[in-house]
Amino acid sequence: MLSLKRKTFKEVVFDQFNNLLMLAICFATLYPIWYVLVNSFNEGQDAMRGGIYWWPRMFSIDSYLAVFANDGIMLAMGITVAKTFVGTVIHVFFTAMVAYAFSRRELIGRTVYMIIGTVTMFFSGGLIPYYLLIRDIGMLDSFWVYIIPAMFSFFDLIIFLSFFREIPDALEEAAKIDGANDFKIFYQIILPVSMPVVATIALFHGVYQWNDYFTGMIFINKSDLQPIQTYLYRVVAQSSSNQMVAATSGNVFKTVSSQSVKLATMVVTTMPIVIAYPFLQKYFVKGFMIGSIKG
């Protein structure tokens, strides 16, 4: 039988300290989310008195009714869903196609392209030149400003490239013997066997598209094209939630406040990705482990 080594007093103390530290970090991370959730489900006028920390004092969903009664937030949610889906599909397909080309040893100038791409990961032209570029190509107040500038990422290319290099060359050689060209090999062989990395990059970019508020804030002036995160930013930063409260009539208007509507809006905009993340975490971990040295 294997004998288990007993921990020393210092090791026990160290383990307990680590456990307490991790519990404190988890509490500091999760409690703000819980606080927003609890206060969003409390009656708005009552919540203004304060003292709500762990559970709603007067449970109410009127703040959420005020949020969903507003046409602006539902339109913004539709824009976010559309740009997340379209942007993710295009980003994954285009980045994978470029990465496959980079994985070919016969690509002329591959080293130069890699150096140029690596430099762009650390240096950029800045916000003003970027804004002027977007303006000159006519993408201001356009849905495509969410899609085209984000359709390629050199960081994601490196992840794709690491995975493609692990695919046996025999698969491509057999396909070429059967008369398949590079495009057919990519569509029918490389992509099907690369579903783990495809799913990983799709999750990376999908989370980015869902959480991105900066693009809508800088390049979009039309209210019918702003995503939900930009809408949330303007609600919080500009106190436009007062307009949402004013647009709600009847008994709901009497029980909500601008603060409770803000909190409910935060929950509505962030909860979908918060709920989805634990189920998708394994793909994020797998994405970072792709290309690592196998033991």
From TrEMBL:
Domain ABC transmembrane type-1: 77-274
CDD domains: TM_PBP2 (cd06261)
UniProt keyword Transit peptide present: no
Listed transmembrane segments: 20-38, 112-131, 143-164, 185-208, 263-280
Membrane topology listed for this record: Multi-pass membrane protein
Keyword terms, alphabetized: Cell membrane, Membrane, Transmembrane, Transmembrane helix, Transport
Compartments reported by the entry: Cell membrane
Family under the similarity heading: Belongs to the binding-protein-dependent transport system permease family.
PANTHER family with a match to the protein in the record: ABC TRANSPORTER PERMEASE PROTEIN MG189-RELATED-RELATED, POLYGALACTURONAN_RHAMNOGALACTURONAN TRANSPORT SYSTEM PERMEASE PROTEIN YTCP
Name of the protein in question: ABC transporter permease
Originating species: Paenibacillus marchantiophytorum
